[in-house]
Specification:
- Helices cover 31% and strands 10% of the residues.
- Strands 2-1-3 form a three-stranded antiparallel beta sheet, covered by helices on one side. Strands 5-4-10 form a three-stranded antiparallel beta sheet. Strands 6-7 form a two-stranded antiparallel sheet.
- It is of the alpha+beta class.
- The relative contact order is 0.12.
- It has three domains: 71 residues, no CATH class; 128 residues, ABC transporter ATPase like fold, CATH 1.20.1580; 136 residues, Helicase, Ruva Protein, domain 3 (Orthogonal Bundle), CATH 1.10.8.
- Bound molecules: zinc ion (2 copies).
- The site of one zinc ion has 8 residues, from loops.
Length: 386
């Protein structure tokens, strides 16, 4: 009884006196012909009755809500509904933001969260004097966090007196600058280049080793790479398979003259000032930049995504919240973290941060990005040694 929802005699629309048990804590799929009553059962019967029972359990008058045509439904929990017509494909949109459950959770955390004082580390109780005119901070799903975090009002730590920022709803949102992890801007994942897909290490640059480079681009970039080599005093071997390139050449090709990966080979040397003189951006750097520049363009994004892997953000481990916000507030507890802004509200988030180890892409043992400088450097050395 407790592990299923029992529906008896549902008769709305096309439902012909349907009686069934829906198991709880399972992903349950209703299938059937168009018009057979799937939505009527799920939304107009189960969800509607769930809402009615929930309001009733709070002691609210529900006379204005019509009961669905059904003999009885037992075992229902308060429910949320996400309908099929969601057009927002933004990764910032989650079940929590769409249903606004997340907004209420943030109110709760902001009002009653305990947190450690950043100076003395001792537990500070919730600041109850949050001003009544606090802006109701709606979680708009979509769009980038565009406001810059402001230094808000502070409250003194009750133990050491250090002023600490008053908690606000924005501190708990991965979609607001105050609350988002700066590394992944609140997405919980970072994109990194999939080197196995981007580069054919058996080929030379001149023969098209970098996938996605049009022949005219190959010619142009080869000239820039060779100019860069001359600037730094080495010969860029555009006719040799990429796997035989030395570490400096490889880092130049991938990361470009401005990258720490390449600059470590020539500390102190000023990079070329013009493209003609070898100011090469780097195949990976260029890819990630183009992706970021056109993040709103779904078609373009998909074209580039075949060269990318999505990795759990190394700084927030997919929690998507800024460290301070993530470390602080847990209703009633100073030590435990809130169940992570993101994973608490998002099926994506909980998938991303399941377990301690980030998901590995089978095809890319060494994704490249500024966050894995060491791994990449190590790999490029081993490649050049083969
Ligand atoms: Zn303190
Ligand atoms: Zn992050």
């Amino acid at each position: 009884m407790n592990d299923s929802i029992l529906v008896k005699g549902a008769r709305l629309h096309n439902l012909k006196n349907v009686t069934l048990a829906v198991p709880k804590n399972k992903l349950v799929v209703l299938t059937g012909l168009s018009g057979s009553g799937k939505s009527t059962l799920a939304l107009d019967t189960l969800h509607k009755e769930g809402q009615r029972q929930y309001l009733e359990s709070l002691g609210m008058v529900t006379g204005f809500l019509s009961r669905p045509e059904v003999d009885s439904i037992t075992g229902l929990s308060p429910s949320i509904s996400v309908d099929q017509h969601l057009t927002n494909r933004s990764p910032r949109s989650t079940v929590g933001t769409v249903t606004e459950v997340f907004t209420y959770l943030r109110v709760l955390w902001a009002r009653i969260g305990h947190r450690p004082c950043p100076a003395c580390g001792r537990n500070t109780p919730p600041a109850y004097h949050v001003s009544g005119d606090e802006v109701w901070d709606d979680e708009s799903a979509g769009g980038e966090p565009d406001e810059t975090p402001r230094a808000g009002p502070t409250v003194p730590c009750p133990h050491c007196g250090t002023p600490i920022p008053e908690m606000g709803m924005a501190h708990f949102s991965f979609n607001k600058p105050a609350g988002a992890c700066p590394t992944c801007t609140g997405l919980g994942t970072v994109h990194q280049a999939d080197l196995r897909r981007l580069i054919d290490h058996e080929r030379s640059v001149a023969a098209g080793a970098v996938h996605g480079w049009h022949p005219s681009v190959v010619e142009r970039n080869t000239a820039i790479l060779q100019a860069a080599g001359r600037h730094y005093g080495f010969a860029f071997e555009a006719d040799q398979p990429v796997k035989t390139l030395g570490a400096a050449q490889y880092d130049l090709l991938l990361h470009g003259v401005d990258s720490p990966e390449f600059r470590r080979h020539f500390p102190g040397a000023a990079p070329p000032t013009t493209v003609a003189h070898g100011r090469f951006e780097g195949a990976v750097t260029n890819l990630l930049r183009r992706y970021a520049d056109r993040i709103e363009d779904a078609g373009y994004r998909e074209k580039i995504e075949r060269f990318l892997v999505n990795e759990t953000c190394p700084d927030c481990q997919a929690r998507a919240c800024a460290p301070r916000a993530g470390a602080s507030p847990s209703p009633g507890s100073a030590s435990s973290r809130p169940r992570a802004c993101r994973s608490a509200s998002s099926p994506h988030g909980s998938t991303r941060c399941r377990g301690a180890s980030p998901p590995k892409s089978g095809s890319s043992p060494t994704p490249s990005s500024p966050t894995c400088t060491n791994a990449c450097a190590g790999w490029s050395t081993s490649v050049s040694g083969t």
